[in-house]
Amino acid sequence: MKILLLLLAAAGLCWGQYNPNTVPKRTSIVHLFEWRWQDIAEECERYLAPNGFGGVQVSPPNENIVITNPNRPWWERYQPISYKICTRSGNEEQFKDMVKRCNNVGVRIYVDAVVNHMCGAAGGSGTHSTCGSYFNTGTEDFPAVPYSGWDFNDGKCHTGSGEIENYGDIYQVRDCRLSSLLDLALEKDYVRSTIAEYMNRLIDIGVAGFRIDAAKHMWPGDIKAFLDKLHNLNTQWFSEGTKPFIYQEVIDLGTEPIKGSEYFGNGRVTEFKYGAKLGTVLRKWDGEKMAYLKNWGEGWGFMPSDRALVFVDNHDNQRGHGAGGASILTFWDARLYKMAVGFMLAHPYGFTRVMSSFRWPRYFQNGKDVNDWYGPPSNADGSTKAVTINADTTCGNDWVCEHRWRQIRNMVIFRNVVDGEPFSNWWDNGSNQVAFGRGNKGFIIFNNDNWNMSVDVQTGLPAGTYCDVISGQKENNKCTGKQVVVSGDGKANFQINTDAEDPFIAIHVDAKL
Ligand code: AAO
Description:
Helix content is 21%, strand content 21%. It contains nine helices and 27 strands. α8 (334-346) links the parallel β14 (308-310) and β15 (351-356). α7 crosses α8 (334-346) and α8 packs parallel to α9. The site of acarbose derived hexasaccharide (AAO) has 25 residues, from loops. Acarbose derived hexasaccharide binds next to loops. Residues 27-415 form the Glycosyl hydrolase family 13 catalytic domain.
Protein backbone atom coordinates (compact mmCIF):
# COMPACT_ATOMS: atom_id res chain seq x y z
CA MET A 1 0.00 0.00 0.00
CA LYS A 2 2.77 2.40 1.03
CA ILE A 3 4.67 1.63 -2.16
CA LEU A 4 1.57 2.22 -4.23
CA LEU A 5 1.06 5.60 -2.57
CA LEU A 6 4.69 6.52 -3.16
CA LEU A 7 4.38 5.55 -6.81
CA LEU A 8 1.22 7.60 -7.17
CA ALA A 9 2.87 10.57 -5.50
CA ALA A 10 5.90 10.28 -7.77
CA ALA A 11 3.67 10.03 -10.83
CA GLY A 12 1.73 13.05 -9.62
CA LEU A 13 4.92 15.08 -9.42
CA CYS A 14 6.29 14.11 -12.81
CA TRP A 15 2.98 14.69 -14.55
CA GLY A 16 2.71 18.28 -13.42
CA GLN A 17 3.74 19.70 -16.79
CA TYR A 18 0.19 19.21 -18.18
CA ASN A 19 -1.35 21.44 -15.54
CA PRO A 20 -1.46 25.09 -16.60
CA ASN A 21 -0.85 26.29 -13.03
CA THR A 22 -3.66 28.81 -13.27
CA VAL A 23 -5.50 29.72 -10.10
CA PRO A 24 -8.67 27.59 -9.57
CA LYS A 25 -11.63 28.43 -11.82
CA ARG A 26 -9.50 30.33 -14.31
CA THR A 27 -9.53 28.17 -17.36
CA SER A 28 -8.11 30.06 -20.37
CA ILE A 29 -5.04 32.01 -21.35
CA VAL A 30 -4.64 34.81 -23.86
CA HIS A 31 -1.75 35.39 -26.27
CA LEU A 32 -0.95 39.12 -26.04
CA PHE A 33 1.07 38.98 -29.25
CA GLU A 34 3.89 41.57 -29.37
CA TRP A 35 2.62 43.54 -26.36
CA ARG A 36 5.07 45.50 -24.21
CA TRP A 37 5.69 44.18 -20.69
CA GLN A 38 4.42 47.37 -19.09
CA ASP A 39 1.13 47.14 -21.02
CA ILE A 40 0.69 43.50 -20.03
CA ALA A 41 1.27 44.37 -16.36
CA GLU A 42 -1.50 46.96 -16.55
CA GLU A 43 -3.80 44.65 -18.49
CA CYS A 44 -3.42 41.96 -15.82
CA GLU A 45 -4.49 44.38 -13.14
CA ARG A 46 -7.18 46.37 -14.91
CA TYR A 47 -8.79 43.70 -17.14
CA LEU A 48 -7.52 40.12 -17.10
CA ALA A 49 -7.82 39.44 -13.37
CA PRO A 50 -11.26 41.06 -12.97
CA ASN A 51 -12.55 39.04 -15.95
CA GLY A 52 -11.16 35.67 -14.90
CA PHE A 53 -8.37 35.16 -17.44
CA GLY A 54 -5.91 32.54 -16.20
CA GLY A 55 -2.75 33.77 -17.85
CA VAL A 56 -0.90 35.38 -20.71
CA GLN A 57 1.36 33.89 -23.39
CA VAL A 58 3.96 36.57 -24.05
CA SER A 59 6.13 37.02 -27.14
CA PRO A 60 9.71 35.73 -26.88
CA PRO A 61 11.45 37.86 -24.21
CA ASN A 62 15.05 37.12 -25.24
CA GLU A 63 17.29 39.26 -27.42
CA ASN A 64 16.67 38.86 -31.15
CA ILE A 65 18.13 40.05 -34.44
CA VAL A 66 17.00 43.44 -35.75
CA ILE A 67 15.76 43.14 -39.34
CA THR A 68 15.33 46.27 -41.41
CA ASN A 69 14.44 44.73 -44.77
CA PRO A 70 11.51 44.34 -44.43
CA ASN A 71 11.27 46.92 -41.69
CA ARG A 72 11.09 45.27 -38.25
CA PRO A 73 8.88 42.27 -39.10
CA TRP A 74 7.11 40.53 -36.19
CA TRP A 75 9.06 37.39 -37.04
CA GLU A 76 12.44 38.85 -36.14
CA ARG A 77 11.58 37.78 -32.59
CA TYR A 78 11.85 34.16 -33.69
CA GLN A 79 15.57 34.70 -34.45
CA PRO A 80 17.44 34.68 -31.12
CA ILE A 81 20.82 36.36 -30.64
CA SER A 82 21.18 35.77 -26.90
CA TYR A 83 19.17 34.88 -23.82
CA LYS A 84 19.31 38.39 -22.37
CA ILE A 85 15.80 39.59 -21.58
CA CYS A 86 15.84 42.54 -23.89
CA THR A 87 13.41 43.09 -26.78
CA ARG A 88 10.98 45.63 -28.19
CA SER A 89 8.59 44.47 -25.44
CA GLY A 90 10.95 45.70 -22.75
CA ASN A 91 13.98 44.98 -20.59
CA GLU A 92 14.55 42.59 -17.71
CA GLU A 93 13.36 45.02 -15.04
CA GLN A 94 10.10 45.57 -16.91
CA PHE A 95 9.71 41.83 -17.46
CA LYS A 96 10.17 41.14 -13.75
CA ASP A 97 7.73 43.87 -12.82
CA MET A 98 5.13 42.37 -15.19
CA VAL A 99 5.53 38.84 -13.82
CA LYS A 100 5.23 40.07 -10.26
CA ARG A 101 2.21 42.29 -10.85
CA CYS A 102 0.37 39.68 -12.92
CA ASN A 103 1.07 36.89 -10.42
CA ASN A 104 -0.05 39.13 -7.57
CA VAL A 105 -3.51 39.34 -9.16
CA GLY A 106 -3.55 35.63 -10.03
CA VAL A 107 -2.72 35.95 -13.74
CA ARG A 108 0.11 33.64 -14.89
CA ILE A 109 2.81 34.36 -17.47
CA TYR A 110 3.84 31.76 -20.10
CA VAL A 111 6.99 32.39 -22.11
CA ASP A 112 7.37 31.55 -25.79
CA ALA A 113 10.71 29.71 -25.66
CA VAL A 114 12.61 29.82 -28.97
CA VAL A 115 15.33 27.27 -28.32
CA ASN A 116 15.48 25.14 -31.45
CA HIS A 117 17.66 27.63 -33.28
CA MET A 118 19.33 31.02 -33.35
CA CYS A 119 18.91 33.58 -36.17
CA GLY A 120 18.87 32.92 -39.91
CA ALA A 121 22.08 31.93 -41.72
CA ALA A 122 22.04 35.17 -43.71
CA GLY A 123 21.93 37.34 -40.58
CA GLY A 124 25.50 38.55 -41.17
CA SER A 125 27.77 39.89 -38.46
CA GLY A 126 27.57 42.92 -36.25
CA THR A 127 25.52 44.24 -33.39
CA HIS A 128 22.15 44.66 -35.12
CA SER A 129 20.31 42.97 -32.26
CA THR A 130 17.79 44.27 -29.76
CA CYS A 131 20.38 44.60 -26.98
CA GLY A 132 23.37 45.31 -29.18
CA SER A 133 25.05 41.94 -28.62
CA TYR A 134 27.59 41.00 -31.27
CA PHE A 135 27.05 37.92 -33.45
CA ASN A 136 28.41 36.40 -36.64
CA THR A 137 26.32 33.91 -38.60
CA GLY A 138 29.23 33.08 -40.93
CA THR A 139 31.22 31.57 -38.06
CA GLU A 140 28.08 30.75 -36.01
CA ASP A 141 29.35 32.83 -33.10
CA PHE A 142 26.96 34.15 -30.49
CA PRO A 143 29.37 35.27 -27.76
CA ALA A 144 26.63 36.76 -25.58
CA VAL A 145 25.32 33.22 -24.88
CA PRO A 146 28.00 31.95 -25.70
CA TYR A 147 27.44 29.53 -28.59
CA SER A 148 29.98 28.80 -31.31
CA GLY A 149 30.20 26.58 -34.41
CA TRP A 150 30.36 23.34 -32.35
CA ASP A 151 26.96 24.00 -30.90
CA PHE A 152 25.10 23.69 -34.21
CA ASN A 153 23.77 20.72 -36.14
CA ASP A 154 25.39 21.24 -39.54
CA GLY A 155 27.21 17.89 -39.55
CA LYS A 156 24.07 15.95 -38.78
CA CYS A 157 21.92 17.30 -41.60
CA HIS A 158 22.12 15.31 -44.81
CA THR A 159 20.25 17.45 -47.30
CA GLY A 160 22.20 19.20 -50.03
CA SER A 161 20.97 22.63 -48.98
CA GLY A 162 21.29 22.13 -45.22
CA GLU A 163 17.59 22.98 -45.07
CA ILE A 164 14.54 20.89 -44.31
CA GLU A 165 13.52 19.86 -47.83
CA ASN A 166 10.99 17.14 -47.07
CA TYR A 167 8.66 16.95 -44.08
CA GLY A 168 8.26 13.26 -44.83
CA ASP A 169 11.80 12.63 -43.51
CA ILE A 170 11.84 12.82 -39.73
CA TYR A 171 15.64 13.19 -39.65
CA GLN A 172 15.61 16.27 -41.85
CA VAL A 173 12.87 17.86 -39.80
CA ARG A 174 14.91 17.50 -36.59
CA ASP A 175 18.48 17.85 -37.81
CA CYS A 176 18.32 20.37 -40.66
CA ARG A 177 17.57 24.08 -40.72
CA LEU A 178 13.99 25.36 -40.58
CA SER A 179 13.85 28.27 -43.07
CA SER A 180 17.63 28.77 -42.78
CA LEU A 181 17.55 29.26 -38.99
CA LEU A 182 20.86 28.08 -37.45
CA ASP A 183 19.91 24.77 -35.84
CA LEU A 184 21.19 24.12 -32.33
CA ALA A 185 22.77 20.73 -31.52
CA LEU A 186 20.44 19.74 -28.73
CA GLU A 187 22.13 16.39 -28.13
CA LYS A 188 25.02 18.33 -26.54
CA ASP A 189 24.87 18.68 -22.80
CA TYR A 190 26.31 22.19 -23.05
CA VAL A 191 23.44 23.32 -25.29
CA ARG A 192 20.83 21.61 -23.11
CA SER A 193 22.28 23.18 -19.97
CA THR A 194 22.45 26.63 -21.54
CA ILE A 195 18.81 26.44 -22.58
CA ALA A 196 17.80 25.16 -19.15
CA GLU A 197 19.74 28.00 -17.51
CA TYR A 198 17.76 30.54 -19.57
CA MET A 199 14.45 28.90 -18.74
CA ASN A 200 15.39 28.60 -15.06
CA ARG A 201 16.09 32.32 -14.91
CA LEU A 202 12.54 32.88 -16.12
CA ILE A 203 11.12 30.31 -13.70
CA ASP A 204 12.91 31.96 -10.79
CA ILE A 205 11.43 35.30 -11.83
CA GLY A 206 8.00 33.66 -11.52
CA VAL A 207 6.76 32.46 -14.91
CA ALA A 208 4.28 29.55 -14.82
CA GLY A 209 5.30 27.70 -17.96
CA PHE A 210 6.45 27.70 -21.56
CA ARG A 211 5.32 27.38 -25.15
CA ILE A 212 8.11 25.41 -26.81
CA ASP A 213 8.52 26.95 -30.27
CA ALA A 214 9.27 24.63 -33.20
CA ALA A 215 9.13 21.55 -30.95
CA LYS A 216 8.58 19.38 -34.03
CA HIS A 217 12.10 20.33 -35.11
CA MET A 218 13.65 18.93 -31.94
CA TRP A 219 13.83 15.26 -30.92
CA PRO A 220 11.37 14.59 -28.07
CA GLY A 221 14.24 13.13 -26.01
CA ASP A 222 16.32 16.30 -26.43
CA ILE A 223 13.42 18.41 -25.19
CA LYS A 224 13.00 16.05 -22.25
CA ALA A 225 16.70 16.44 -21.45
CA PHE A 226 16.48 20.20 -20.96
CA LEU A 227 13.06 20.04 -19.28
CA ASP A 228 14.49 17.59 -16.74
CA LYS A 229 16.94 20.30 -15.69
CA LEU A 230 14.24 22.85 -14.89
CA HIS A 231 13.54 24.19 -11.43
CA ASN A 232 10.17 23.98 -9.75
CA LEU A 233 8.14 27.17 -9.83
CA ASN A 234 8.81 30.12 -7.55
CA THR A 235 7.21 29.41 -4.16
CA GLN A 236 6.29 33.06 -3.72
CA TRP A 237 3.26 32.28 -5.95
CA PHE A 238 3.19 28.50 -6.45
CA SER A 239 3.08 25.63 -4.02
CA GLU A 240 6.24 23.69 -3.28
CA GLY A 241 7.17 21.17 -5.98
CA THR A 242 5.12 22.70 -8.82
CA LYS A 243 6.48 21.99 -12.29
CA PRO A 244 6.25 24.49 -15.16
CA PHE A 245 3.36 24.02 -17.59
CA ILE A 246 4.72 22.88 -20.97
CA TYR A 247 2.97 23.11 -24.32
CA GLN A 248 4.90 22.20 -27.44
CA GLU A 249 4.29 23.67 -30.87
CA VAL A 250 4.01 20.57 -33.06
CA ILE A 251 2.06 21.02 -36.29
CA ASP A 252 0.44 17.64 -36.94
CA LEU A 253 -2.42 17.81 -39.39
CA GLY A 254 -2.20 14.07 -39.92
CA THR A 255 -0.28 14.15 -43.19
CA GLU A 256 3.33 13.72 -42.00
CA PRO A 257 5.24 10.95 -40.19
CA ILE A 258 5.96 13.12 -37.11
CA LYS A 259 3.04 12.83 -34.71
CA GLY A 260 2.08 15.15 -31.88
CA SER A 261 1.73 12.11 -29.63
CA GLU A 262 5.51 11.58 -29.70
CA TYR A 263 5.74 14.67 -27.48
CA PHE A 264 3.10 13.79 -24.84
CA GLY A 265 5.81 12.62 -22.44
CA ASN A 266 7.09 16.20 -22.19
CA GLY A 267 3.83 18.09 -21.79
CA ARG A 268 0.85 19.22 -23.79
CA VAL A 269 0.89 19.73 -27.56
CA THR A 270 -0.77 22.30 -29.79
CA GLU A 271 -3.74 20.70 -31.63
CA PHE A 272 -3.61 22.39 -35.04
CA LYS A 273 -6.47 20.28 -36.43
CA TYR A 274 -8.80 22.15 -34.08
CA GLY A 275 -8.75 25.59 -35.70
CA ALA A 276 -8.40 24.21 -39.23
CA LYS A 277 -11.49 21.99 -38.83
CA LEU A 278 -13.60 24.48 -36.88
CA GLY A 279 -12.94 27.10 -39.56
CA THR A 280 -13.97 24.63 -42.26
CA VAL A 281 -17.20 23.79 -40.43
CA LEU A 282 -18.26 27.37 -39.76
CA ARG A 283 -17.46 28.38 -43.34
CA LYS A 284 -19.47 25.32 -44.49
CA TRP A 285 -16.65 24.20 -46.75
CA ASP A 286 -16.13 20.57 -47.84
CA GLY A 287 -19.77 19.73 -47.06
CA GLU A 288 -19.22 20.36 -43.35
CA LYS A 289 -22.01 21.48 -41.03
CA MET A 290 -22.30 22.29 -37.36
CA ALA A 291 -24.47 19.22 -36.70
CA TYR A 292 -21.29 17.16 -37.20
CA LEU A 293 -19.77 18.88 -34.14
CA LYS A 294 -21.76 16.54 -31.88
CA ASN A 295 -18.66 14.39 -31.29
CA TRP A 296 -16.13 17.28 -31.51
CA GLY A 297 -12.81 16.48 -29.87
CA GLU A 298 -11.30 12.98 -29.82
CA GLY A 299 -14.24 11.91 -32.00
CA TRP A 300 -12.76 14.02 -34.78
CA GLY A 301 -9.39 12.33 -34.49
CA PHE A 302 -7.90 14.94 -32.20
CA MET A 303 -5.41 14.09 -29.47
CA PRO A 304 -6.67 13.32 -25.93
CA SER A 305 -8.29 16.38 -24.37
CA ASP A 306 -5.88 16.45 -21.41
CA ARG A 307 -2.91 16.69 -23.78
CA ALA A 308 -4.30 19.37 -26.08
CA LEU A 309 -3.68 23.11 -26.19
CA VAL A 310 -6.37 24.53 -28.47
CA PHE A 311 -7.02 27.81 -30.26
CA VAL A 312 -9.03 29.11 -33.21
CA ASP A 313 -6.06 30.95 -34.74
CA ASN A 314 -2.49 31.71 -33.74
CA HIS A 315 0.03 34.40 -34.63
CA ASP A 316 1.23 32.36 -37.63
CA ASN A 317 -1.90 31.03 -39.27
CA GLN A 318 -3.85 34.26 -38.83
CA ARG A 319 -1.53 35.66 -41.53
CA GLY A 320 -0.83 32.59 -43.68
CA HIS A 321 2.32 31.32 -41.88
CA GLY A 322 2.56 27.86 -40.33
CA ALA A 323 -0.35 25.58 -41.12
CA GLY A 324 -4.10 25.48 -41.36
CA GLY A 325 -4.57 27.33 -44.59
CA ALA A 326 -7.45 29.44 -45.78
CA SER A 327 -10.05 27.90 -43.47
CA ILE A 328 -8.55 29.57 -40.37
CA LEU A 329 -10.90 32.17 -38.89
CA THR A 330 -9.44 35.40 -37.53
CA PHE A 331 -10.59 38.81 -36.33
CA TRP A 332 -10.81 39.80 -39.99
CA ASP A 333 -13.88 37.52 -40.23
CA ALA A 334 -15.32 38.90 -37.01
CA ARG A 335 -18.82 37.40 -37.04
CA LEU A 336 -17.75 33.82 -37.73
CA TYR A 337 -14.69 34.29 -35.53
CA LYS A 338 -16.78 35.15 -32.47
CA MET A 339 -18.89 32.04 -33.07
CA ALA A 340 -15.77 29.87 -33.34
CA VAL A 341 -14.21 31.28 -30.17
CA GLY A 342 -17.60 31.00 -28.44
CA PHE A 343 -17.88 27.36 -29.46
CA MET A 344 -14.32 26.64 -28.30
CA LEU A 345 -14.80 28.27 -24.91
CA ALA A 346 -18.13 26.53 -24.29
CA HIS A 347 -16.85 23.09 -25.29
CA PRO A 348 -14.99 21.02 -22.68
CA TYR A 349 -12.24 19.78 -25.04
CA GLY A 350 -8.66 20.91 -24.44
CA PHE A 351 -6.96 23.79 -22.65
CA THR A 352 -7.96 26.98 -24.43
CA ARG A 353 -5.89 29.91 -25.66
CA VAL A 354 -7.50 33.11 -26.93
CA MET A 355 -5.64 35.18 -29.56
CA SER A 356 -5.14 38.93 -29.21
CA SER A 357 -3.70 40.58 -32.31
CA PHE A 358 -2.61 43.81 -33.91
CA ARG A 359 -4.06 45.10 -37.17
CA TRP A 360 -1.86 45.31 -40.27
CA PRO A 361 -2.48 46.47 -43.83
CA ARG A 362 -3.47 43.07 -45.17
CA TYR A 363 -3.07 42.98 -48.93
CA PHE A 364 -3.57 39.89 -51.08
CA GLN A 365 -1.71 39.27 -54.31
CA ASN A 366 -2.31 35.92 -56.00
CA GLY A 367 -3.91 34.60 -52.83
CA LYS A 368 -1.00 35.52 -50.57
CA ASP A 369 -0.94 38.42 -48.10
CA VAL A 370 2.18 40.34 -49.16
CA ASN A 371 2.09 42.29 -45.90
CA ASP A 372 2.16 39.18 -43.71
CA TRP A 373 5.47 40.37 -42.24
CA TYR A 374 4.21 43.65 -40.71
CA GLY A 375 5.41 44.11 -37.16
CA PRO A 376 3.42 45.52 -34.25
CA PRO A 377 2.14 49.10 -34.27
CA SER A 378 5.30 51.11 -33.86
CA ASN A 379 6.75 54.59 -33.74
CA ALA A 380 9.18 56.05 -36.28
CA ASP A 381 12.17 54.89 -34.17
CA GLY A 382 10.89 51.29 -34.30
CA SER A 383 9.70 51.18 -30.71
CA THR A 384 6.40 49.38 -30.12
CA LYS A 385 3.39 51.59 -29.49
CA ALA A 386 1.56 51.48 -26.18
CA VAL A 387 -1.79 49.72 -25.94
CA THR A 388 -4.20 52.57 -25.32
CA ILE A 389 -7.73 51.98 -24.03
CA ASN A 390 -10.72 53.78 -25.57
CA ALA A 391 -13.72 55.03 -23.62
CA ASP A 392 -15.77 52.03 -24.84
CA THR A 393 -13.09 49.63 -23.41
CA THR A 394 -11.73 48.63 -26.84
CA CYS A 395 -8.07 49.24 -27.67
CA GLY A 396 -6.47 52.00 -29.69
CA ASN A 397 -3.26 52.27 -31.73
CA ASP A 398 -4.28 49.34 -33.97
CA TRP A 399 -4.29 46.77 -31.19
CA VAL A 400 -7.29 44.54 -31.93
CA CYS A 401 -7.73 43.15 -28.40
CA GLU A 402 -10.10 40.34 -29.38
CA HIS A 403 -9.99 39.28 -25.71
CA ARG A 404 -11.83 42.51 -24.87
CA TRP A 405 -14.65 41.88 -27.32
CA ARG A 406 -17.74 41.45 -25.14
CA GLN A 407 -18.69 38.12 -26.71
CA ILE A 408 -15.21 36.64 -26.22
CA ARG A 409 -14.61 38.03 -22.74
CA ASN A 410 -18.01 36.80 -21.57
CA MET A 411 -17.31 33.32 -22.96
CA VAL A 412 -14.00 33.24 -21.05
CA ILE A 413 -16.14 33.83 -17.95
CA PHE A 414 -18.68 31.19 -19.16
CA ARG A 415 -15.88 28.59 -19.33
CA ASN A 416 -14.86 29.37 -15.75
CA VAL A 417 -18.45 29.07 -14.54
CA VAL A 418 -19.02 25.66 -16.20
CA ASP A 419 -15.56 24.29 -15.35
CA GLY A 420 -15.74 20.57 -14.61
CA GLU A 421 -19.33 20.17 -15.86
CA PRO A 422 -20.06 17.50 -18.47
CA PHE A 423 -20.96 18.11 -22.11
CA SER A 424 -24.77 17.66 -22.10
CA ASN A 425 -28.13 18.21 -23.84
CA TRP A 426 -26.78 18.29 -27.38
CA TRP A 427 -29.39 19.39 -29.90
CA ASP A 428 -29.14 19.99 -33.65
CA ASN A 429 -31.46 20.44 -36.62
CA GLY A 430 -29.36 18.21 -38.87
CA SER A 431 -27.84 21.32 -40.39
CA ASN A 432 -26.14 24.36 -38.84
CA GLN A 433 -28.36 25.01 -35.84
CA VAL A 434 -26.84 23.35 -32.78
CA ALA A 435 -26.89 23.69 -29.03
CA PHE A 436 -25.31 22.08 -26.00
CA GLY A 437 -25.01 22.56 -22.28
CA ARG A 438 -22.48 22.04 -19.56
CA GLY A 439 -24.34 20.15 -16.86
CA ASN A 440 -26.70 22.47 -15.04
CA LYS A 441 -24.39 25.50 -15.21
CA GLY A 442 -24.43 26.81 -18.77
CA PHE A 443 -25.98 26.48 -22.23
CA ILE A 444 -25.13 27.78 -25.71
CA ILE A 445 -27.03 27.74 -29.01
CA PHE A 446 -25.97 28.68 -32.56
CA ASN A 447 -27.77 29.45 -35.80
CA ASN A 448 -25.30 29.28 -38.68
CA ASP A 449 -28.01 28.39 -41.22
CA ASN A 450 -29.30 31.06 -43.54
CA TRP A 451 -32.84 30.89 -42.18
CA ASN A 452 -34.33 32.14 -38.95
CA MET A 453 -34.54 29.84 -35.96
CA SER A 454 -37.12 29.54 -33.20
CA VAL A 455 -36.88 26.38 -31.09
CA ASP A 456 -37.75 24.99 -27.69
CA VAL A 457 -34.87 22.98 -26.34
CA GLN A 458 -33.76 21.38 -23.10
CA THR A 459 -31.06 23.48 -21.42
CA GLY A 460 -30.52 21.45 -18.26
CA LEU A 461 -30.53 24.71 -16.27
CA PRO A 462 -32.63 25.57 -13.21
CA ALA A 463 -35.79 27.57 -13.92
CA GLY A 464 -35.41 31.33 -14.10
CA THR A 465 -34.61 34.30 -16.27
CA TYR A 466 -31.08 34.44 -17.67
CA CYS A 467 -29.13 37.16 -19.46
CA ASP A 468 -27.63 36.23 -22.80
CA VAL A 469 -23.91 36.97 -22.40
CA ILE A 470 -23.37 37.38 -26.15
CA SER A 471 -25.76 40.27 -26.92
CA GLY A 472 -25.11 41.77 -23.49
CA GLN A 473 -24.72 40.60 -19.92
CA LYS A 474 -26.14 40.94 -16.43
CA GLU A 475 -25.62 44.37 -14.87
CA ASN A 476 -27.33 45.67 -11.72
CA ASN A 477 -29.66 42.66 -11.84
CA LYS A 478 -30.82 43.57 -15.35
CA CYS A 479 -29.91 42.19 -18.76
CA THR A 480 -28.21 44.66 -21.09
CA GLY A 481 -28.98 42.31 -24.03
CA LYS A 482 -31.46 39.49 -24.70
CA GLN A 483 -33.23 37.57 -21.92
CA VAL A 484 -33.90 33.84 -21.88
CA VAL A 485 -36.61 32.28 -19.72
CA VAL A 486 -35.97 28.69 -18.61
CA SER A 487 -39.12 26.97 -17.41
CA GLY A 488 -39.51 24.44 -14.61
CA ASP A 489 -38.78 21.51 -16.93
CA GLY A 490 -35.45 23.05 -18.04
CA LYS A 491 -36.72 24.01 -21.48
CA ALA A 492 -36.38 27.42 -23.07
CA ASN A 493 -37.34 29.06 -26.33
CA PHE A 494 -34.54 30.54 -28.41
CA GLN A 495 -34.96 32.78 -31.41
CA ILE A 496 -32.01 33.70 -33.57
CA ASN A 497 -32.62 35.47 -36.84
CA THR A 498 -30.10 35.45 -39.64
CA ASP A 499 -29.64 39.19 -39.32
CA ALA A 500 -28.65 38.96 -35.63
CA GLU A 501 -25.41 40.81 -34.93
CA ASP A 502 -24.13 37.54 -33.49
CA PRO A 503 -26.11 34.42 -34.37
CA PHE A 504 -25.61 32.67 -31.06
CA ILE A 505 -26.86 32.92 -27.47
CA ALA A 506 -25.15 31.78 -24.28
CA ILE A 507 -26.50 31.67 -20.73
CA HIS A 508 -25.01 30.53 -17.44
CA VAL A 509 -25.93 30.44 -13.78
CA ASP A 510 -23.87 33.52 -12.87
CA ALA A 511 -25.92 35.55 -15.36
CA LYS A 512 -29.31 34.58 -13.87
CA LEU A 513 -31.54 37.36 -12.59
C1 AAO B 1 11.88 34.31 -41.67
C2 AAO B 1 11.62 34.42 -43.16
C3 AAO B 1 12.28 33.27 -43.89
C4 AAO B 1 13.77 33.28 -43.59
C5 AAO B 1 13.98 33.19 -42.08
C6 AAO B 1 15.43 33.29 -41.68
O1 AAO B 1 10.20 34.41 -43.38
O2 AAO B 1 12.07 33.44 -45.27
O3 AAO B 1 14.38 32.16 -44.18
O4 AAO B 1 13.28 34.28 -41.46
O5 AAO B 1 15.97 34.48 -42.12
C7 AAO B 1 8.53 32.81 -37.89
C8 AAO B 1 8.01 33.08 -39.29
C9 AAO B 1 9.01 32.74 -40.36
C10 AAO B 1 10.33 33.44 -40.08
C11 AAO B 1 10.81 32.92 -38.72
C12 AAO B 1 12.15 33.50 -38.30
O6 AAO B 1 6.81 32.34 -39.48
O7 AAO B 1 8.50 33.20 -41.61
O8 AAO B 1 11.27 33.15 -41.10
O9 AAO B 1 9.84 33.33 -37.73
O10 AAO B 1 12.12 34.86 -38.29
C13 AAO B 1 6.89 25.35 -39.69
C14 AAO B 1 7.36 24.92 -38.32
C15 AAO B 1 6.73 25.71 -37.20
C16 AAO B 1 6.79 27.21 -37.45
C17 AAO B 1 6.12 27.46 -38.78
C18 AAO B 1 6.11 28.94 -39.15
O11 AAO B 1 7.11 23.53 -38.13
O12 AAO B 1 7.46 25.41 -36.01
O13 AAO B 1 6.84 26.77 -39.81
N1 AAO B 1 6.20 27.97 -36.35
C19 AAO B 1 7.06 28.55 -35.29
C20 AAO B 1 6.60 29.95 -34.90
C21 AAO B 1 6.85 30.90 -36.04
C22 AAO B 1 8.35 31.00 -36.28
C23 AAO B 1 9.08 29.75 -36.05
C24 AAO B 1 8.49 28.59 -35.60
C25 AAO B 1 10.55 29.80 -36.12
O14 AAO B 1 5.26 29.91 -34.51
O15 AAO B 1 6.32 32.16 -35.79
O16 AAO B 1 8.58 31.40 -37.66
O17 AAO B 1 10.97 30.17 -34.82
C26 AAO B 1 4.16 22.37 -43.03
C27 AAO B 1 4.72 21.72 -41.79
C28 AAO B 1 4.83 22.68 -40.64
C29 AAO B 1 5.56 23.92 -41.08
C30 AAO B 1 4.78 24.54 -42.27
C31 AAO B 1 5.36 25.86 -42.73
O18 AAO B 1 2.78 22.65 -42.83
O19 AAO B 1 3.88 20.66 -41.40
O20 AAO B 1 5.54 22.06 -39.59
O21 AAO B 1 5.59 24.85 -39.98
O22 AAO B 1 4.81 23.59 -43.31
O23 AAO B 1 6.57 25.65 -43.33
C32 AAO B 1 -0.62 22.26 -45.23
C33 AAO B 1 -0.01 21.03 -44.58
C34 AAO B 1 0.86 21.45 -43.40
C35 AAO B 1 1.93 22.32 -43.92
C36 AAO B 1 1.23 23.53 -44.51
C37 AAO B 1 2.18 24.55 -45.04
O24 AAO B 1 -1.53 22.91 -44.33
O25 AAO B 1 -1.03 20.18 -44.13
O26 AAO B 1 1.42 20.35 -42.74
O27 AAO B 1 0.39 23.14 -45.58
O28 AAO B 1 2.89 24.01 -46.10
